[in-house]
Amino acid sequence: MLGELAQRHACVRAAFDEASEGAGVDLWTLSQEGPDTQLNSTEFTQPALLAAGVAAWRAWQDVGGAQPASLAGHSLGEYAALVAAGALSLHDGAKLVRLRGQLMQDAAPAGTGAMAAVLGAEDALVLEVCTLASGGDAIVVPANFNSPGQIVIGGHAAAVDRALQLLADRGVRKAVKLAVSVPSHTPLMREAANRLSEAMNAMAWSAPDRPVVQNVDAEVHDTVQSVRDALVRQLYLPVQWTGCVQALGARGVTRIAECGPGKVLSGLVKRIDKSLDARPVGTPAEMDAALTEWSNA
């Protein structure tokens, strides 16, 4: 994770060091050397991904990358966007998202919850199936509207299984369970969200220094209280990523730099709005290409 970028930019390791102090664990060593069993625990995955996102953002700044008019992040990435916007320190952000991971694990013990990716189905069909599959003490709901034709559902494991069967009965051939047990962005996380809110209130926050489009409603919130409220609701309501990308476009954004490891979000952006030029900048080669091509455009 960002190993190549760290060789060229000292700010990458510095970001991981700051996040490690907040999270209380050596995130750089964990991300580079493992053990994977620890890194894959959401309690540690979350601060590691936050550190990676902010580190790539700072490296982009280091090379003189264009300053964004607006920011957004998918799920955990929303915290990185808010750190980049000066709403929260990386130290406090890492402390907060490690707690977020712990609370999420506590809210849904192993075997309780499940998530599944549904590809090629209309939103309305997925919503209908989730309603039909929910009943009694088991619920399943849309958790991520990632792009047109790509929705993640989540909830109690039994209800997710029923939803997958109903989708298959309706001819949806690409619906598979994900290798996660914590059903993020579903009502099972309501109590975790309440406890997370208490921790947020004890930290120092500032109003973002630029617009951040938030997941829960694809809206910009410009006061500390409204930003925190949107973050809390994000934990138990679906991520409206399609709406977030559309909102960025409506605000005049034409280019999007994906700060962090991988290029999943860049791919989703292209599915949502082909007019947007989305590029990953998580490696030196990717960052150089974005800088060169955007400066020559």
Short description:
This protein has 14 helices and 9 strands.
Features:
single chain, 297 residues, alpha/beta, four-stranded antiparallel β-sheet, three-stranded mixed β-sheet, 14 helices
Described by its quaternary structure, the protein is single chain
Average of per-residue pLDDT values: 95
Low-confidence stretches: none
The proportion of strand residues reads: 5-15%
Lay out the secondary structure.
Elements (H helix, E strand, L loop, with lengths): L2 H6 L1 H14 L3 H7 L2 H4 L2 H21 L8 E2 L4 H8 L5 H18 L5 E7 L3 H11 L6 E8 L2 E7 H13 L4 E4 L12 H12 L10 E3 L4 E2 L3 H11 L6 H10 L4 E4 L5 H9 L4 E4 L3 H13 L1
Parallel strand pairs: 1-6, 8-9
Antiparallel strand pairs: 2-4, 2-5, 3-4, 6-7
Structure report:
This protein has 297 residues and is an alpha/beta fold. The chain is 53% helix and 14% strand. It has a four-stranded antiparallel beta sheet. A three-stranded mixed beta sheet has the order 1-6-7, sandwiched between helices. Helix 13 links the parallel strand 8 and strand 9. The longest helix has 21 residues, at 42-62. The mean pLDDT is 95.
